[in-house]
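Hey, I'm writing a tutorial for new members on how sequence and structure tokens pair up, and I'd like a real worked example in the thread rather than a made-up one. If someone can provide the structure for the chain below, I'll link this post from the tutorial.
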Amino acid sequence: MENANKSNLCIGDRLKKFRETFLNLSQSALAKELGCSQQKINQIENGTQQELKFRDVIKLAEMGLNIHWLYTGKGNMLYSKQSFRKQAQAVISVLETFVE
């Protein structure tokens, strides 16, 4: 469980970086965009929320976030328009690991 929390903290740190540097949104504003509570965004960023819902991941990708970067820290924070298909496949691959 400790490794999961460390991994989750990294995801939270990267979500916060995307929110602050690219979107320039508060936690409350991002929560409104995603249709969730500010508390949930805070919990994800602080590593106490275990996972993002599928719909949240899709909305973040639509906002320009590279989901592979979010979960692994590899690659660019933002995806390019040319790699959208690759991005979609990466999202599906990442999400499949949570379903199994």
